[in-house]
Design goal:
twelve-stranded mixed β-sheet; 6 helices; alpha+beta; 16% helix
């Protein structure tokens, strides 16, 4: 689903409710639909499971722990963002900009400004996608129990070291320390996660998710502010009269 790809950095969970194809087509440039992973060959008997390589490199252990602690004590944050999606097959990059706000527990709002206006809100297990140009509001649901630690650590919950082998990556253009996270178990949603972290504040400056096909979804956070007292009302969507509302959560309950 397009929403999974759009927010895979922060919402790496399958979307349970379907989304209208009209809306999906309108945002495909910002968030392409995921491709089905290629069938995996059966492991050889002599191969050890991925979990056997569980580790956090000594040179980044302190930074990982401080980063984990930082988000555990963060109650809310706001930031501007710049998203660059690099299509490996097409050899082109789609860039988007906007703002994001977050508030515990589990409230998040993404406002896309360019190349077109879109609003995406996560509120508990419900997710809302608003397209002002098409005058549509779609409501779906995600299974929050399936969220990866690459998502939940930002909410102060998941432990990265429980799900990833973490090492220091080389990066000439990085403003912080690059952490490379490789899943300990087979992960069909993404191949790798890279976090650029400020070594002083332990804040994530940039997050990059490598898709199974090698495409990269990078989100850089700018002007990030934490614990500013964000009001819960800012996560509500009040579409103007005439907006078509497609609530797929009701259809699933029938």
């Amino acid at each position: 689903m397009y929403l999974e790809k759009l927010l895979v950095t922060l919402l790496a969970a399958p979307v349970i409710a379907p989304v209208p194809s009209t809306v999906a087509h309108q945002v495909v440039a910002q968030a392409p639909a995921p491709q089905a992973p290629a069938p995996k060959a059966a492991p050889k008997a002599a191969e050890a499971p991925k979990a056997a390589g569980k580790k956090v490199a000594p040179e980044v252990k302190d930074l990982v722990e401080r980063m984990q602690a930082f988000y555990e004590k963060t109650q809310d944050f706001s930031a501007d963002f710049k998203q660059d999606y690099k299509y490996k097959a097409l050899r082109r990059t789609q860039s988007s900009t906007g703002t994001v706000i977050y508030k515990k527990p589990g409230l998040m709002r993404w406002e896309y400004e360019k190349p077109s206006k879109r609003t995406f809100v996560l509120a508990g297990e419900k997710v809302y996608a608003y397209d002002p140009e098409a005058q549509t509001l779609s409501v779906g649901r995600i299974d929050t129990s399936q969220l990866s630690a690459s998502v939940t650590f930002l909410f102060g919950q998941g432990k990265l070291a429980d799900e990833f082998s973490i090492s220091k990556g080389a990066c000439k253009d990085c403003k912080g320390t690059l952490l490379v996270l490789d899943p300990l178990k087979d992960e069909p949603r993404f191949r790798q996660v890279r976090l650029e972290v400020d070594p002083k504040t332990a804040q994530v400056l940039k997050s990059t998710v490598v898709d199974p096909d090698g495409s990269e979804n990078a989100i850089a956070f700018l002007n990030l502010k934490t614990n500013v007292g964000i009001d819960s009302d800012r996560f509500k969507i009040n579409p103007p009269e005439g907006t078509r509302i497609d609530d797929f959560t009701k259809a699933m309950r029938k």
